[in-house]
Write a structure and sequence with these properties.
There is one protein chain. The chain has helices spanning 10-18, 32-41, 45-48, 75-81, 136-162, 171-198, 217-231, 263-285, 330-333, 360-367, 384-388, 480-498; strands spanning 20-22, 25-26, 85-91, 115-119, 201-203, 206-210, 237-242, 294-297, 307-308, 311-312, 337-340, 349-351, 355-356, 398-403, 406-414, 419-428, 451-461, 529-530. A hairpin with a 2-residue loop joins strand 5 and strand 6. The two termini are 29 Å apart. It has a domain at 134-195. By secondary structure, the protein is α+β, with helices and mostly antiparallel strands. It is globular, with a radius of gyration of 25 Å. Pfam families: Sulfatase, Sulfatase_C. Keywords: Calcium, Hydrolase, Metal-binding. One of its GO terms (cellular component) is endoplasmic reticulum.
Length: 534
């Protein structure tokens, strides 16, 4: 029997020791869909319409028309034009179809990737009937209530008729009874229906398994990644391995269950680390390590609200305040950042400057000899001068921290003083003061009664207070008026650079499920298949 111990990540640790660690690495959004859009395009998600304004923070289903617009340029598209073989394995969550279930307008193959093996949506608790449900439980409750109401109406009408208090035909009673039966049956079938609709495995544009068998997912991701490296080792390549791990429902294979003192989440982290080690070993075996830039990161912070009783399923954010879904607090946006390139990048180097996932776009485009698009604003900055130590400071003086389409906070790196300031204009309100998260909800709101507008804004000096626990005031910080004025000026410049708002891909109707957009490997709704054998 295994004795639980603290989570052990020797492969990720080795990656950090052999590469450069970005200690102030930041996602452009605190949830996955907009964060991934920003990562691939090098642009704040609000510029591409990939930030919501109505509360649906991510794409909600495979059968929606929203997604990364075709006119957006990803770094994969530019590298493909430069002769790179480009592949993505794992989670996409940037849309699939526009007008029919087969147009694949948002598919990875339409955004610069030669190959795709993975899930077009995301990993969800509903894929395994996990304790935490994204939509199944809510739909079951709603249908159950409707069925109960229909049954109660049928009983009331039947009693009234039998007692002579009502007259007419029995048709309304029969209709209510039938409605109660249909609604109740739908409620009981909702779990399998959600699995079939949203838990899909694709190879290229073909569905190869519906619903996805998550028990085999880790082995398949590794097989595909190692196969890609073997197949493309003689030429330039770009491989994005978007792991399904450290995301609920935390599907973990038996060899790793019970290994960590941090419960199922720790077990899942250890399996992720093992998978990272396997991919690094494959690079070495194929003689690719010395000519391959490896980048390791996350798209947002830990999900604090993902807990049941004493079981924490969404991870932790250490000493950083807040978590996933909180647009301003560090815990939602400060993520791991490691880059390794043996013989090029100095091993063990730590970069404390603010950097962003958006910086990957200009970095890899320039390394591939490509040109940055000149017809749009690119918010990312080339990391290589900073990684190589050729420049003492990064390219970001200011970074905007969005919650949906709203700027909740602004970071100012005052280079001449070596100070990083953070100004919060809006923060989430917790139901229980001091709770630290919006327990009882999926994530915190960005607007409305559940947020607090600060006037004057909150100010923190992250250089000395990375946990954002000691807000500064005009009385305690003499430069408070100067910092606030400079930040407001930078925010105004940023807002002017946005231009007309593009169509909101995460808002209604783009983010509403439509049956004719639902991917299905058989005649809808008979969506079940297993076309590949391991």
């Amino acid at each position: 029997m295994l004795t639980p111990r603290p989570a052990w990540t020797p492969n990720i640790d080795r990656l950090a020791q052999e590469g450069v660690r970005l200690s102030q690495h930041l996602a452009a959004a605190s949830v996955c869909t907009p964060s991934r859009a920003a990562f691939l395009t090098g642009r704040y998600p609000v510029r591409s319409g990939m930030a919501s304004s109505t509360g649906d923070r991510v794409l909600q289903a495979t059968g929606v028309s929203g997604g990364l617009p075709a006119n957006e340029t990803t770094f994969a598209k530019i590298l493909k034009e430069r002769g790179y073989a480009t592949g993505i394995i794992g989670k996409w969550h940037l849309g699939l179809n526009c007008a029919s279930s087969q147009d694949h307008c948002h598919h990875p193959l339409h955004h610069g990737f030669d190959s795709f093996y993975g899930t077009p949506l995301s990993l969800m608790g509903d894929c395994t009937r996990f304790e935490l449900s994204e939509k199944r439980a809510g739909l079951e409750r709603a249908l159950g209530l409707c069925a109960g109401a229909a049954a109660a109406a049928a009983i009331a009408m039947a009693v009234g008729r039998l007692m002579g208090l009502a007259h007419g035909t029995w048709a309304p009673v029969i209709l209510c009874v039938a409605s109660a039966g249909v609604l109740g049956s739908l409620g009981r079938a909702m779990g399998p229906l959600v699995q079939l609709a949203d838990c899909v495995l694709m190879r290229g544009q073909e569905i190869v398994e519906q619903p996805l068998d998550l028990a085999r997912a880790a082995a398949r991701v590794l097989r595909e990644a190692e196969g890609f490296l073997r197949s493309h080792k003689t030429g330039p390549f770009l491989l994005l391995v978007s792991f399904l791990h450290v995301h609920t429902p935390l599907v973990t294979t038996p060899p790793f269950l019970g290994r960590s003192a941090h419960g199922l989440y720790g077990d899942n982290v250890e399996e992720l680390d093992w998978m990272v080690g396997r991919i690094l070993s494959r690079l070495e075996q194929e003689g690719l390590s010395e000519r391959t830039l490896v980048y390791f990161a996350s798209d947002n912070g830990g999900w604090l609200e993902a807990r049941v009783g004493s079981q924490q399923y969404g991870g932790w954010n250490g000493g950083f305040r807040g978590g996933k879904g909180m647009g301003g607090w560090e815990g939602g946006i400060r993520v791991p950042g490691i880059l390794r390139w043996p013989g090029v990048l100095p091993p063990g180097h730590v970069v404390p400057e603010p950097t962003s996932l958006m910086d990957v776009f200009p970095t890899v485009v320039k390394l591939a000899g490509g040109a940055l698009p000149q017809d749009r604003v690119i918010d990312g900055r080339d990391l290589m001068p900073l990684l190589l130590g050729a420049e003492p400071h990064g390219g970001h003086e200011f970074l905007m921290h969005y919650c949906e389409t709203h700027v909740h906070a602004v970071r100012w790196h005052q280079r001449e003083r070596g100070t990083t300031w953070k100004v919060h204009f809006t923060t989430p309100e917790f139901e229980t003061p001091g709770a630290g998260a919006c327990y009882g909800r999926a994530v915190c709101d960005c607007t409305g009664s559940q947020v607090k507008e600060h006037e004057p804004p909150l100010l923190f000096e992250l250089s000395r207070d990375p946990g954002e626990g000691r807000p500064l005031t005009p009385h305690s910080e003499p430069t408070y008026p100067e910092v606030l004025a400079r930040v407001r000026e930078a925010l105004a410049v940023h807002v002017r650079s946005l231009g007309p708002a593009p169509p909101g891909q995460l808002d209604w109707p783009c983010n509403a499920w439509r049956p004719w957009l639902q991917p299905c490997c058989g005649p809808f709704p008979l969506c079940w298949c297993q076309r590949e054998q391991d």
